[in-house]
Description:
Number of helices: 20
Strand content: under 5%
Amino acid sequence: MLERFFRLRENGTAVRTEVMAGLTTFLTMAYIILVNPTILADAGMPAAGAAAATCLAAAFGSIMMGLVANYPIALAPGMGLNAYFTYTVVKGMGLPWETALGCVFLSGVLFLILTVSGVRRLIVGAIPTSLYAAIAAGIGLFIAFIGLKGASIVVADPATTVALGDLTTPTAALALFGLVLTGALLAWRIRAAMLVGILATTALAWAVGAVHWTPVDYSLEALTSTAFRLDIPTALGVGGKGAAMALIEIVVVFLFVDLFDNVGTLVAVTRRAGLSAPDGSIPRLNRILLTDAAAAIFGSLAGTTTTTSYIESAAGVAAGGRTGLTAVVVGLLFLVALVFAPFAQIIPAAATAPALILVGALMMAPLAASDWDDPLVAIPGFLTLIAIPLTFSIANGLAFGIVAYALLKLARGQARAGDWMLYLLAVLFIARFIWLAVG
């Protein structure tokens, strides 16, 4: 049955290989079970519920990817979007987390509509691949900055905006320990480096008395504390401005970041697995995009941020994964991980901060493929890269990059009728800046 459904022999693989590949992918991305609830807890969400939602969303998305699209690509709540959700939407804009989850749901519905209508393909085609790299790296810097701040390694300073914190404090010292340990494990190419680093730092924090935890009962109530708590009506009328803020500001960011994350991951993983078509296209792309949209909707209902494809899937591909059976194994392992969801809050910020910093570092890799000698690449790329962490907003980075690229193409005299989507996006982002200034 497995042979017929996943076409194992046709793809040069076997059940045992796919199972081991799924285990490998799971170990490389299992850190999200611990990191995501920590970030969402800063938005006021119950940690146990957020952990359970993380496991459920990852399980649903990964299993659906395997069964519907037959690709060895795992999904889980995306790094970067969880930070945007907490630190920009909830803390920055002052939205309740229930309303922010409503925005995630609406973005998922929009993903689905744009996918079915073919508009997602137009948007992907309008943005240069060089800007994908800058967006990914900018989100990496954003995540790393949050990690450094959460570890008290970087602190606020009235004279210089930011400064080096006191590294002798327990939080900073523990984070530095975790940073060195996890970095070393990554250098040794240990597949579960992030997970081992988090657990080892947590154990040390408990040993030195740096963790304060109130035990909670393992109950269905704790596991479902974020499920179906999304507030869609309020998301459609935030601040008395109708759908403007919710659908133009927040949803557009969720849409674009998920688009770029998804496309970048798909290109990298399918090329590594040899699953791309000879012309570089990705077979069954619509099935993949529909899975992505459905996973985003399901994740918001479960109580977590946008679920997207994970680049860590490349680890499973390197271990021999070639079909959707790999993704199904990952999904089943996330279901097993539900057992540990109520204990997510025993992990201190000092233990998860190194993972954030190092994930940010690994997200710099796409920059190497960009032509930084070309101003048409370098200027929009740099503005995107620098604006995301310094304005604490992925939306601002997207806006600066796309507007700069469109204006430079005009200045070069390279505007073409086929670029209409690019210029439409640029106009919308300019309108956004005006709206923010006068709003």
